[in-house]
Design a protein that fits this description.
231 residues, 34% helix, rod-shaped, 3 helices, three-stranded antiparallel β-sheet, alpha+beta, 26% strand
Amino acid sequence: MKVGITTSTVEKKRNKTRLQRGFSLAELMVVMAILTIVVSVLTDGMIQIQKRSASEVSKVGVAQESRQFMDQILRDLRQCGFPSLAMFDSSFIPTPTVNSANVAGGLISFSSSAIQFEGDIDGSGVSEVYIQVVVPSSGNCPCTLQRGTVSKASYLSGGTPAYYTELDNLMSQNVFTAYEYDGTAYNTSDSLSSIKNIGVTLYVQSPQPEASVSSTTYPTTTMVSEARINN
């Protein structure tokens, strides 16, 4: 009877010891490997989500900046040539001319990458407005689009505009197109006074790559519009 009790007690102790032994080194290594894989997958997923989010935010930001500048330049262009000489009474003394500080002379210069015109763009008097593409020393885009203004009174006395950057990452130097009264494209041999419409094309690249495609593919935003000018 005593032997049976002793054997049962020993067996219970063995079972208890076996249960308390825990995991073996091999089992721990397998568990750690699985956890490492799971954590790696989750981390990579979070990184990809953050990249996609940054890419989308960047695209929306570029589109908004492009739209804001497009709206601004179209508003400015519609004021080109206002107030014109025809709006002034020639009996005034001194007799107003196109070179008077209060008279807008319309389009002063035009190219596909830069324009200069006169107009009362904000109700404060006639201003000289400059919009130009600034090309880096490499000669290639991405470029910068700048806008500058100075009052015509200051311009006539030798004043120069203060330029401000409106858009970065511009991917084309050909921003402006011009059309004459009959709708034909402006020819540089023609007079500037024949231009009645100016088209604006913005091709802007996002500073963030397209995360869903590759790290070297950058999304772009293209906007095209046109303004009729009093020239």
